[in-house]
Amino acid sequence: MSFQNKIAWITGASSGIGEALAYELSNQGAKLILSSRRKEALTEVKNNCKNPSDAHIITLDLSKTDQLETKAKEAINIFGHIDYLFNNGGISQRSEAIDTKLEVIRRVMEINFFGSVALTKAVLPSMIERQSGHIVVTSSVMGKFGTRLRSSYAASKHALHGYFDSLRQEVYEDNIKISLVCPGFVKTDVTKNALEGDGSKHNKMGRGQKNGIPAEEFAEKLIPKILKEKEEIYIGGKEIWGVYLKRFFPRLLNKMLRNAEVT
Each residue of 228-249: b (16+ CB within 10 Å) or e? Predict the structure, then answer.
């Protein structure tokens, strides 16, 4: 299996993990549809791809779920179908739960959860018709356990697991694969772009992200696992062990997290 001539639609493609995925997939011969809100940044990513002529841009805002069905039709019309949908776009949060306004919680859920669900639902009928497709969802280790300052973010990622685990069972007979990807710390601007409790931008680089693996390394490690159709994928540093501690030693993990410095 390979990505040669496969059609991959990537949200959040203007920076970070999405940008790195675009380059890695382009290097492997995939034809791309690149999406985010920022057209200029997407154009730069497109031009930096190995085969810019095989990369197309569709701007979208994941929080505007009523527009995503139209965006999906536009994407499908470019190449005739979508082989891989990378639900990668999202936003984080850095504030204590008591200080986080309800509208901020709703915005995080709208982008991270409802945006991915709406886009998937818009693409899914064409995949079922072709009896082929692979949906890749960027979750987080926060989709498996939570820490301070990330209550809304963790909730949105937990929700993705519940939804897409269920969907995987429903589309099994249609030969549609679903992979939930759980990054640990990856060196991106996710913390800088995170929302504070009042909705303002955090504008600080978290220590974990600063010391995380490069996005390019993450993409290189991810692609082989996608080709192997792994259902749940963990990539990162020692923070990945939190997933296993949560499963087998939850009280120990809670004690460790209570005493950990969280940024």
Answer: eeeebbbbbeebbebbebbeee
pTM for this predicted structure: 0.97
Among 16, 27, 187, residue whose Cα is nearest residue 8: 27
Mean pLDDT of the chain: 97
The whole-angstrom separation of Cα 243 and Cα 129 is 36
Beta-carbon-side half-sphere exposure of residue 87 (alpha carbons within 13 Å): 33
3-state SS track over 127-190: HHHHCCEEEEEECCHHHCCCCCCCHHHHHHHHHHHHHHHHHHHHCHHHCEEEEEEEECCEECCC
Q: Quick one: how many helices (H) and strands (E) in the chain?
A: 10, 9
Q: Is the distance from CB of 239 to CB of 145 less than 8 angstroms?
A: no
Q: 157-196: per-residue pLDDT in tens?
A: 999 999 999 999 999 999 999 999 999 999 999 999 999 9
Q: How far is CA 259 from CA 45, 94, 100, 221, in A?
A: 40, 18, 22, 31
Per the DSSP assignment, residues forming a β-bridge with 195 are: 93, 201
**Superfamily of chain region 7-259:** NAD(P)-binding Rossmann-like Domain (3.40.50.720)
Confidence label for 1 from pLDDT (cuts 50, 70 and 90): confident
Q: What is the DSSP letter of 239?
A: G
CA 58, CA 53: separation in Å to the nearest integer? 14
Catalytic residues: 153
Residue 171 to residue 124: CA distance in whole angstroms: 9
- Dump the DSSP string for 65-121: GGGHHHHHHHHHHHHS--SEEEE-----B-S-GGGS-HHHHHHHHIIIIIHHHHHHH
